Amino acid sequence: MRRPDPSGRPTIVKIAAALDISPSTVSRAFTRPELLHPDTVAAVKAHALEVGYVPNQLARGLVSGRANAIGIVLPDIANPFFPPLIRSIQHTAHESGLSVFIADSADDAGREQELIHDLGPQVHGIINISSRMASRDLQRLAESHNIVLINRDIADMSRVLVDTAPAIAQAVEQLTALGHHHLAYVGGPKASWSNASRSKAVIDAGRRHGVIVDTYDTRLGSYDEAWEATHALVATGATAAIAFDDVMAHGLLNGFAARGVRTPEDISIVGCDDTLATKTQPELTTIAANLDETARTATNILLAHRGRSRVAATRGVQTAQLLPGGSVGPATAVAR
Amino acid sequence: MRRPDPSGRPTIVKIAAALDISPSTVSRAFTRPELLHPDTVAAVKAHALEVGYVPNQLARGLVSGRANAIGIVLPDIANPFFPPLIRSIQHTAHESGLSVFIADSADDAGREQELIHDLGPQVHGIINISSRMASRDLQRLAESHNIVLINRDIADMSRVLVDTAPAIAQAVEQLTALGHHHLAYVGGPKASWSNASRSKAVIDAGRRHGVIVDTYDTRLGSYDEAWEATHALVATGATAAIAFDDVMAHGLLNGFAARGVRTPEDISIVGCDDTLATKTQPELTTIAANLDETARTATNILLAHRGRSRVAATRGVQTAQLLPGGSVGPATAVAR
DNA sequence: CTGTGTCGTGCAAACGTTTGCAAAAAGACG
DNA sequence: CGTCTTTTTGCAAACGTTTGCACGACACAG
């Protein structure tokens, strides 16, 4: 057969030959050293280091049935909410010797499904963040894949959720106390669980405090859409806006500013996810949880089941906190 | 041996058995359909679709010597410069049926080396963005790996560079024409080629136009460092600042604002990379290239050599453009 | 008909590991 | 020193593909 480069990468077999022992022994020196004589392990490791041996994960995964890798599937890498999660997942996985695939579905549920499907055989499992897929499609995929969801709540599937409801309730309460009687929720991506859950939290809290809550839906939840929404918002008389995330809050901030509406004097703004809160002027009041922990939890759910056939359904909840900034102030009369 | 689930994923062998043909034929139906009778191909594909067959990339990569995957290694996923590149690389790779590994080195050259080393056997090649490694270490790695660098210029290695020098020269010229005689360059990450090259471009252009150029070095090139730098900057009498990137430009903008220095009335600011230019107030004047194309070029260099043993050294250059915003204005006398 | 191609398919080896089982070596004990 | 354990090692099969080679079938020319 093909012999690409005769002196290719060192393999277990070559090391075994050089040391005049069996390949199994070399293999075990790395995977089950406690089974071997310490001297043997030392000799193997020394030689391996010398020749620069790196275990071939493909062969490893092939025989053991599952690769030493996990996948991340998400709607849009460029959304600042995701990169910190990715980083944290990758670091956690790396500690266990796993590599990480990344796949961006461009906000397309069909593509998302395809990516999970294609990634399936080469990974131990997949962390699917802010999935846009239909629940039944996810459940079907979960029959043949280890899937852990982040910010998507589906019964019988493993998931880690950031619960923003308490902090949103707190924000609404504070706004009410400051004299705001008319709030607006500026919504994010349609198919997003986070959006549905935040929207509901604002409406519920508004109802409890007897204030008006308008809801502005957007398609993608982008900065530009939020910017544009300010046009409609100024006309309603709302004195405070809660945005789906910080990117949109930022869009509101700048959109209002462009229309001569000052924050927080004329309008109060609350963001979410703390992706750029301290970088705006004024600094955003926002709502956020510890994403590092969210990511680690999700990754560990996946890793806990290495070897086991199926990941048992788990539900992890992370509670977000209200982080006061300078974008909230007392209500004032506004042109309506 | 281990038989985890008797009726596991469909394989080529099972399909072959079901259709009463040889596994080779099934394999060829996917990889070399032109060798087969069209009817055979159709039958195989139909059956494969029905049972939900997905080729096992591990086995595939094992026998063919290289995996159907590439890796991305970079210093910090959370830096907004990278995600668009990642997305573009992943999409391009996906079109060729390749998956993408992501690895974040946390700005640590040692870790970067380790990640490339570990990823090596499971990928066809690695795109190393803004590498922090020493040149000789990279060159040594390149002996045993297909590596394409982005924003790192090393002879005899494949690389794609964003050339900001012409646009920086143009910016300096414009600033000079507006009466600025004292510029500052606020530098980014120490080990970054982009930083070295931008710094040099500012200094060279300043010299040509006979203006003073101060250089402020930072360790990481962060927003906060830029913010802090404004303290020192206001004392020097510089009337314009060119920042390593938009994140730092943003830090300058807000840092100056906090000190009562207005942009562009009191200070002009030029950013780089166009990661958030339109989202600041005023909008940043910035310098940027088409990252999509950069990413695609790098990916294609890697893909062009599938099967070939080694990727030939290539040098691609993308020229960045000056994008006028509202953060540059005429020079005014400033307290010095 | 026989010889020569061409096309479609099958055989079997190989890729680099892991791992169940069994054999060999080394200690323990009387 | 035998015998019995325990520790350490080796053998060989298996994972799911790809691919060099060869064989059979069929077509067409001579």
Write structural notes for this entry:
Two copies of one chain form a homodimer. By secondary structure, chain A is an alpha/beta fold. Chain A folds into three domains: 1-51, 434 Repressor (Amino-terminal Domain) (Orthogonal Bundle), CATH 1.10.260; 64-161 and 290-319, Response regulator (Rossmann fold, 3-Layer(aba) Sandwich), CATH 3.40.50.2300; 163-289, Rossmann fold. Chain A is 43% helix and 16% strand. Chain A contains twelve helices and twelve strands. In chain A, helix 9 (193-208) links the parallel strand 6 (182-186) and strand 7. The longest helix of chain A has 16 residues, at 193-208. Chain A is elongated and about 85 Å long. Residues 1-6 of chain A have low confidence and may be disordered. Chains A and B meet through helix 4, strand 1, helix 5, strand 2 and helix 6 of A and helix 4, strand 1, helix 5, strand 2 and helix 6 of B. Chain A binds a DNA duplex (30 and 30 nucleotides) through residues 1-2, 11-13, 21-25, 27-28, 31-32, 35-37, 40, 55-65, 121.
Which sheet architecture does the biggest sheet of chain A show?
Answer: 6 strands, parallel
Uncertain spans of chain A? 1-6
Structural class of chain A: alpha/beta
The helix fraction of chain A, in percent, is 40-55%
Number of domains of chain A: 3
CATH first level of the largest domain in chain A: which class? Alpha Beta
- Label the CATH architecture of the largest domain in chain A: 3-Layer(aba) Sandwich
CATH structural fold name of the largest domain in chain A: Rossmann fold
> C-alpha Rg of chain A, in Å?
26 Å
Give, in order, the helices and strands of chain A.
HHHHEHEHEHEEHEHEHEHEEHEE
Oligomeric composition of the shown chains: homodimer
Number of helices of chain A: 12
**Order of strands across the main sheet of chain A:** 2-1-3-4-5-11
Largest interface: A-B, 52 and 52 residues
Strand content of chain A: 15-25%
Mean pLDDT over the residues of chain A:
90
What best-fitting shape of chain A do the alpha-carbon axes yield?
elongated
CATH superfamily of the largest domain in chain A: Response regulator
